[in-house]
Amino acid sequence: MLEVTGLKKVYEGKSRTVEAVRDLTFTLDTGELVCLVGPSGCGKTTLLKCMSGLLEPTSGSVRLQGKEVDGPPPGMAIVFQEYGRSLFPWMSVRENVELPLKQKKVPSARRKQLVDESIAAVGLADSHSAYPWQLSGGMQQRVAIARAIAYEPQVLLMDEPFAAVDAQTRADLEDLIRSLWKQFQVTTLFVTHDIDEAVYLGQRVLILSKSPTVIRQDLAIDLPDERDQLHTRSSARFAELRAQVYSQIHRPREEQDAPVAAVAPAVAGQP
Ligand SMILES: Nc1ncnc2c1ncn2[C@@H]1O[C@H](COP(=O)(O)OP(=O)(O)OP(=O)(O)O)[C@@H](O)[C@H]1O
């Protein structure tokens, strides 16, 4: 449903040229939850901007349901890291969630239903009329997630959405993402630099190299579908997968010319 083919992005400046992304090819199938993990500065944000039509790639292409992305596609929603800047402070929670639906010209009764449903799904049913500045960071990020889900996107892109919240809130939000994904079955690409988070959340993890970026490995996560912070993270299989991702990211540069092909799980995972 989403195909990235030979994507390359070079930033040409007056004084310097940066090859941020060298060659990325991967696909997302309908309904998948895929994590993309890579070191800081490896071009994750650049990739998302190209995927969402905000930035033109130097070469290669992005296709959503067979159609080339050459501007922000109507079926895509993005949740950014900086929730503080993505919500309008003068609008209530409800108005923030409703705004894109008005722009999409969703009829008023359906709008109300989508807003109610998505605010309840992120656990903020009591905070409809609050303003973003009256909410904690984690609650603000829940609003941003509700807004994305209410939009009923074909694809949801998330750019390090939990990087700015504390560890406990982050764990809660990770579980929220898994439960929303099951409830709404939105195809999701979740970008993070946190290896544990990628393994905990994803059905697959795409591991990126350091810049100039290529895909080191497309790793199937064969953990049980029911995951929880305590048991999943302390399982032996989780530790093995985490070690595998870590070693790929930290592979010496001279070895990085030989990417590892997609790896199928060797054994069914045990909790
Ligand atoms: N507008 C720009 N002009 C020039 N270079 C840029 C621009 N945006 C990003 N870069 C460079 O491209 C490379 C990749 O940056 P990008 O922000 O995409 O990485 P990232 O993986 O998202 O980083 P982080 O994890 O730290 O947020 C970096 O070397 C960065 O300096």
UniProtKB/TrEMBL annotation:
GO molecular function: ATP binding; ATP hydrolysis activity
Keywords assigned by UniProt, alphabetized: ATP-binding, Nucleotide-binding, Transport
Residue ranges annotated for the ABC transporter domain, each copy included: 2-235
SMART domains according to UniProt: AAA (SM00382)
Matches recorded under InterPro entries: AAA+_ATPase, ABC_transporter-like_ATP-bd, ABC_transporter-like_CS, ABC_transporter_ATP-bind, P-loop_NTPase
Coiled-coil region: none
CDD domains registered for this protein in UniProt: ABC_NrtD_SsuB_transporters
Domain of life: Bacteria
Name of the protein: NitT/TauT family transport system ATP-binding protein
Naturally occurring in which organism (per UniProt): Geodermatophilus ruber
